[in-house]
Amino acid sequence: MLDYKLLQASAEVIRHGSFEKAARDLGLTQSAVSQRVKLLEERLGQPVIIRAKPIAATVAGQRLLQHYQSVRLLEQELLDEMPDIQSDGGYGQVALAVNADSLATWFVDVPKYLFDQLGLLVHLKVGDESLNHSALQDGTVLGAVDMRSTPIQGCRVRPLGMMRYVMVVSPEFNARHFANGVTADALRSCPAVNFSEHDELQNQFLKQYFGLNPGEFPAHTIPSSQGFVTVAEQGIAYAVVEQHQAEEALRTGRLIRPCPFEIDRPLYWHHKTIQSRLLDQVNEIVLSQARRFLPKITT
């Protein structure tokens, strides 16, 4: 039998990527958390954590984390169905992965609904929509927004909708850099804004419409969806943003679209195939929010 106090400590270390943060979250000393992890590993006869920076789970640790998350969901369901049963008085928890643009737009109210309707504390892992599947594979989340339409092992995939991206600039930036239109030469000499060094969306847009490769244009790096809009409004870069994020600025004239080009990116919801009514409710809240805001994926 697994000792769930030991499993909980190990799961929190993996989720936080840190003994210190896990200890703070559990209300324990760092030494106590370390001892629990070590004791679990001794009982299993193998490591569950790769002690590096950042901390990561071994294959065994990933399996244990998935098991722990499943047990927590089932426990929360039991408490909901039997309100007189004694509990520690804490909230249920769910970990999900989402891309920054979704979090800034259609996903923004999902944590509120998960808390108000299901009593869940939400832990979001914010990453690139082309990479979120890895968080499912390593067991750190139960559901993820991702661009892939193919499910990974142990998961189901469902369509969310399309996100449309457009280029925006301030009127002053447009007059200064695009007086003769948006061309490859003009883009080589004025700054863009990237979310990270691996901004595939920006790279796809500039390659598809202007034949530019990464490294052929200067760029700021601002890891914030709203920061993209702000930087564009400040007139220090052009930005390729999700159209709803720039809607108000476009309407008031603080931003304009210097070219008509657009990119549509399909999004899919991947989630664990755990037999859990609570996880089904989590999935339905995510899917209902997507249906409200995102156009359907077209083939």
TrEMBL record:
Keywords: DNA-binding, Transcription, Transcription regulation. It comes from the Bacteria. Gene3D superfamilies: 3.40.190.290, Winged helix-like DNA-binding domain superfamily/Winged helix DNA-binding domain (1.10.10.10). Coiled coil: none annotated. Residues 2-58 form the HTH lysR-type domain. InterPro entries: ArgP (IPR017685), LTTR (IPR050176), LysR_HTH_N (IPR000847), LysR_subst-bd (IPR005119), WH-like_DNA-bd_sf (IPR036388), WH_DNA-bd_sf (IPR036390). The keyword Transmembrane helix does not apply. The keyword DNA-binding applies. Belongs to the LysR transcriptional regulatory family. NCBIfam families: argP, PRK03635.1, PRK13348.1. This is Transcriptional regulator ArgP. It comes from Thalassospira povalilytica.
